[in-house]
Amino acid sequence: MTSKGTRYDTEQIEEIYREVKGYQLLDDSSSSSSELSSSPILHTAKNSLRRGLLALFSAPSTIKFAKSAKRDSLYLACVLYNKDRVMVTEEDRYLPLLEVENSYGTNATVTTAFNWLMKVNCHWSEINKLKHDMEKLNNVTSYSVKLLLLTALQQLQSLTGVQDLGMLHYQPIRDENTGAVVFVFVRQILDSKHFSFQQNLKWTALAKFHKNTPRSDCLGSILSTELIMYREGSHQPVSPGLHLGYLQAELCNNRVLSVMVPSQNPNSLPSVKIRDNANVTKDEWKSLLELSSHCQQCTDNQSNKSKNLFKRQLVRATRKLMDYLNIPADVALRHEIYSCEVLEFSPRVSFIILLPPSPAICHQRSDAKLTYTADTQLNQETLRVPVKSFEVSHLHTYQPSFISSYTKAMLALDVEMTAALQAQREAFSRTEIETTKPLVEDLKAHNLTLENIWKEARWLTDVVRTAREKNYTGILVKALYQNLLNEHKGDTSQHYSTKEASCCQHQLTKSDQHKSNTNNCGTTNNADTMTSCNTSISNEELSDPEASDRVIPCALNYLDMGAFI
């Protein structure tokens, strides 16, 4: 059984990085960079830019923090907090915020800059070197916004005395009134005693900051409880073991794909733990695959107790997860378990993915009919996070060495490729042409390899794409429950008392009534179908197959079991 955990090829990425840096196209001693800088006009422009930046950093007191949002401007802000305090300017009303550009252009420009900044966010110690290399290519139009962002980052580092400004918030914050956009970094400062700020900055109580700043103010609304909670939650992995995760993607009006995540652990999917053992044996997985639509005639009469226990544990997890998401019983039965693989996030954490019916796996935000979760109830418990931001946060938590190596290699490759392409365009002699052509081809080959490695690591988009294919066949929750019910019907004399059997029959009868009421009234509350028989299952009971046989049937009563009896 394949797993994405085996596809995080960090060693190959590191090898590519060493080869890319070995070209030394931007090294001051290399002939390529000398030829690239030979133009008097370009040389003068570079010197002018360097002098301006040196003057800027030599006098930090001249840097002014923004106090209001200008129309269509791009800003950079940092939220540094310590317990119940936050770092603000002396007026107690504003966070450290710098203007990057007074007109950012289109939304596509903002998205591109934000995605690039997420890579930089992984390598704070490389900012100076990266900026130095990019300045040598300052006539490249695509680098203009990137250079401005790096300049603003250096300024914030200098003024706050903090090199690592923290984690980039998962999406830009936009002021609806002015159209201004703010990229926000968030970091918790554990020890604030040794900080010496370079300018008019100080610590103030969060409550005082909120009191002094109107919520209608874009700059004030940057700091919120949700923003800090996201930062803290995104650093917490789920507990070791095997989990059942719920995947539902959403295509927003701006064509950005987002995914539903829990606010307490936004680096993962909404999930419940199946068991402590993260591994799924070949026999266990095979017993599930036999329930898929193309094998529904297969029986599992010869399965041992271990396989049956695994399915019971999975049934319990689906019940808890769907109950948490407030998914109606009739819709719950049409959900599917992703049948291609078990996803290995780390050596100690694995996920089985639960998918909604095909039309709802990836739906338009405006299509309310396909939203099977109770958003009014889950607003405080779930978030919709752009997939690219989720992937970076997820890999930071479960595969930190991989995401660090990948982003470092991509940043280096981007600069070296730009230099090589520019050298190729400016090549005049035959020798220059013969030198730059194979160089560009090698860099393109490295870029293709990195793209393929990244594609392998992007399990979320892979799952969504596969599950939406016409020839894909998942494992229906209905088939899983039917299989378990059949086993109980054929084995009740061994494990059930008359009282327990009557309890289960009573719940099935209530389920039929629930279905009838739903047809008459149109809607119902899942909680109304829960009774005292729906007891929680302890770890001891899960480890005992016979105990699980006794309690599992009564734990299934909230589903419309009468739909398939």
Explain what you see.
- This protein has about 575 residues and is an alpha+beta fold.
- Helices cover about 50% and strands about 15% of the residues.
- It has helices at about 10-20, 30-35, 40-60, 105-120, 125-135, 145-160, 205-210, 220, 225-235, 280-290, 305-325, 330, 360, 375-380, 385-400, 400-425, 430-455, 460-465, 475-490, 490-495, 500-520, 540-545, 545-555, and strands spanning about 75-80, 85-90, 95-100, 165-170, 175, 180-190, 200-205, 240-245, 250, 255-260, 270-275, 335, 345, 350-355, 360-365, 380-385, 475.
- Strands 1, 2, 3, 4, 5, 6 and 7 form a seven-stranded mixed β-sheet that branches.
- Helix 10 packs across helix 11, helix 11 (about 305-325) packs parallel to helix 23 (about 545-555) and helix 16 (about 400-425) runs antiparallel to helix 17 (about 430-455).
- The two termini are about 35 Å apart.
- How many DSSP H or I helices? 23
Distance between the termini: 33 Å
Q: Which structural class do the helices and strands define?
A: alpha+beta
Number of strands: 17
Oligomer: single chain
Which range does the strand content fall in?
Answer: 5-15%
Largest sheet: 7 strands, mixed
Low-confidence stretches: 29-59, 294-300, 367-377, 492-514, 520-565
The average pLDDT is 76
Q: What is the molecular shape? A: globular
- Give Rg in angstroms: 28 Å
Helix content: 40-55%
